[in-house]
């Protein structure tokens, strides 16, 4: 950031030292370009300051949230990242739109499963994978 401000200041000094004629079209254009660059570098510097302030605020909120979670859950062994690891999902390809759809194990018990992409009903056929049957059974081998 500081480098950008120095470069624009150098261009302003260079333009002053070259005594660019403001009466010529080219001179007016060059001076206006340098003015725009100066405005842009100031705006970028302001954005950098705002970004730093926002970053500090988010860090503070994150620390407060971590403290709140520790107070609410009161479980030092609680792993927030593994919260969804206990859920069983199945990925199937929709026969209509060919998109991959994740289905919760509980939804498999429903009569109708609807694809969230094309909103068409998906029929799921189950087959048994136990060694005692041919695969078309109603056994409870799981």
List the helices and strands and how they pair.
Elements: H1 2-17, H2 25-73, E1 89-93, E2 100-104, E3 113-114, E4 121-122
Helix pairs in contact: 1-2
Structural commentary:
This protein folds into 2 domains: 2-73; 89-122, no CATH class. It is 46% helix and 10% strand. The protein has helices at residues 2-17, 25-73; strands spanning 89-93, 100-104, 113-114, 121-122. Strands 1-2 form a two-stranded antiparallel ribbon. Strands 3-4 form a two-stranded antiparallel sheet. α1 (2-17) runs antiparallel to α2. The longest helix has 49 residues, at 25-73. The model has no long low-confidence stretch (mean pLDDT 81).
β content, as a range? 5-15%
User: What share of the residues lie within helices?
Assistant: 40-55%
Low-confidence stretches: none
- Helix tally equals 2
Summarize the structure.
With 142 residues, the protein is mainly α. Helices cover 46% and strands 10% of the residues.
Question: Can you give keywords for this protein?
Answer:
single chain, 142 residues, mainly alpha, 2 domains, two-stranded antiparallel sheet, 2 helices, 4 strands, elongated
């Amino acid at each position: 950031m500081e480098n950008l401000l120095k470069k624009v200041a150098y261009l302003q000094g260079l333009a002053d030292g070259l005594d660019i004629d403001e009466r010529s079209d080219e001179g007016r254009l060059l001076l206006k370009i340098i003015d725009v660059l100066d405005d842009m570098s100031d705006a970028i510097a302001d954005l950098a300051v705002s970004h730093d302030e926002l970053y500090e605020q988010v860090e503070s909120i994150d620390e407060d949230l971590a403290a709140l979670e520790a107070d609410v859950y009161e479980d030092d062994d609680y792993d927030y990242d593994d919260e969804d690891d206990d859920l069983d999902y199945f990925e199937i390809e929709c026969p209509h739109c060919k998109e991959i759809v994740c289905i919760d194990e509980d939804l498999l018990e429903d009569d109708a499963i609807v694809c969230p992409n094309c909103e068409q009903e998906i029929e799921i056929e189950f087959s048994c994978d136990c060694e005692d049957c041919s695969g078309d059974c109603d056994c409870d081998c799981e």
